[in-house]
Amino acid sequence: MPDARQKEKTWVALAGCKDGHALPGAFYGDPDIHQVDLEAVFLSEWLFAAPECELPEPGDYVTLQVGPAPVIILRDEAGTLRAFHNSCRHRGSRLCSAERGQASRLVCPYHQWTYDLKGALLSTRFMGEDFDPATFPLKPLHVTSIEGLIYICLAETPPDIETFRRTITPYIAPHDPRRTKIAFTSTIVEEANWKLVIENNRECYHCAGSHPELLVSLVEMALPNDERFADEFRVMERKARDWDALGLPHAPVDGGLEFRGIRLPFREGVQSMTLDGKLACKKLLADLTDPDLGSVRAFRVPNNWHHFLSEMSIHFRVLPLGPERTEVRTVWLVHEDAIEGWDYDPQRLSEVWVATNAQDRTLAEENQRGVHSPAYEPGPYSEISEFMAINFIAWYRGQLAQFLSGDETSIIRAAE
Ligand code: FES
Ligand SMILES: [Fe+2]
User: Whole-model pTM?
Assistant: First the structure.
């Protein structure tokens, strides 16, 4: 929990922010402000954690680290998803250190206190007659699945996620992430503040200069009527008619500052985010029959974005490891019945985003180095090309202000 001095320092820094401009340098590295970030953002908001297909069977678990908090997400015997603080109720040891695994009981490696998959303490040794295991269950946290995408929240009272669920479900349900399996995963560490990583994701102003592989498929436009892209706009008009006929929603959804969703076509003749523009997997997702669906792009604050294509989906999770260190985990999903080596090649399927992530990492790290310059002054975002970065920073400032003022009215709800 940040102390009074850290909060005061953050207030002062917030007062120095200018609308439509990048943040002052302190927001990208000051450890005190980072403490406030952890509490106001990562320990308060809903976070994307993993796709459900990563833990298909009872006893399957995955772990992740949210700021100071180790977390375990598992599927219990009844198939219910549960999430707990991954910290033993004896003396606090982490229960599970593997990134993922299978267990019928959670046995603490330190003194073997043993918990069931619902978090109840089952057995201990030498704790005496008066010891009541019922008073030491694992501490749960909020968990929900949106069409197979697991979100967790460490706050006692979580903010609303139902608007996001209700709005985004019709876009992603046709791709059915529940009926998928993991084709490839990548975890990279970027030596940059988490906000630089997200800001970078929120604009494609940089794409032409950095992402040749991605631009085989992706059109830079963020809205279907972007006047900079007349040819692509005609493709969009045609595709919109096709998608209407298929009953696939595509219009941009405006989730205020909280989230965005849209289906956009790829370049003419391109079906997937591959180097040759051809499908990466022969078997399409869910019951889809048309390979030419562009991609549903979805973003939600503070830590995730997703692409749902006809034959694969790609999910990005951002977690801070420190004031200037950020983990970016990417998972590529294909139909649960797709066969590796026959339907898809993991290397071919992932190479565009592996390259793009590496390029974005360089951009974020160079950005990090530059904002340390004594000459750094926050410059203006492009309102045409960086309006989503503007929105993200507006959300972030609001989130911090709300946290620091103890105001219970969420900036997100205010924006609805
Ligand atoms: S810390 Fe877990 S059993 Fe002692
Ligand atoms: Fe990028």
Answer: 0.95
